[in-house]
Amino acid sequence: MSHRTRFVFVGDSITDCGRDRGDSASLGDGYVRILADAIAERAGGADVRNVGVSGDRAIDLEARWATDVVAAHPDVLTVYVGVNDMWRRFDSDDPTSPEAFQATLLRLLDTLPAPLPRLLIIEPFFLPSTPAHREWIDDLDGKRAVLRRVADQYGATFVPLHDRLTAAAAESGIAAIAPDGVHPSPAGHALIAEAWLEAFGATDPDARAS
């Protein structure tokens, strides 16, 4: 019997997207479900798991990393975090510096057992709807840079999102892509899935999804 590739997606509400946390097979209603359908026909089959939790920052991932990620034994691991590390600075006066963000990510990835899973790191996005949000973008820029550096360090596939969703919002309006600037609409989730598939397929000659 051929091995079913296990895909694990970990992150915050964008990954969680209403999944039933009492059901390990629940995928939520966002990009993870779209991807599960898209990769279902890959060679050997696919086992997709969504372990996103709404509100999580990198430090919150660390608290559950061993049970939700390492214990799942992923063949392909996707990490999507950073928006709440930005958000908490402005809604709770609880900032996360780029240095602290990077240190947490390195601790997480250093705990992955060998052989390392194939790793994809998704770039967070934010669509500002007011002039005051310029400061929010500046904060997120630091996290985005960290994620790109960490991806390079670990040989991970970096999935760029910010420019793609910014361009889509410029064309269709923010409300059509992510009404609050953060949480994607169905169209926004489709764009995330599209970006992931492009990045995954570009470095996996056996990827059958397109």
Automatic annotation (TrEMBL):
InterPro entries: Ester_Hydrolysis_Enzymes, SGNH_hydro, SGNH_hydro_sf. One of its GO terms (molecular function) is phosphatidylcholine lysophospholipase activity. It comes from the Bacteria. Gene3D superfamilies: SGNH hydrolase (3.40.50.1110). Residues 9-191 form the SGNH hydrolase-type esterase domain. CDD domains: SGNH_hydrolase_like_2 (cd01834). PANTHER family: SGNH HYDROLASE-TYPE ESTERASE DOMAIN-CONTAINING PROTEIN, THIOESTERASE 1/PROTEASE 1/LYSOPHOSPHOLIPASE L1. This is Lysophospholipase. It comes from Leifsonia poae.
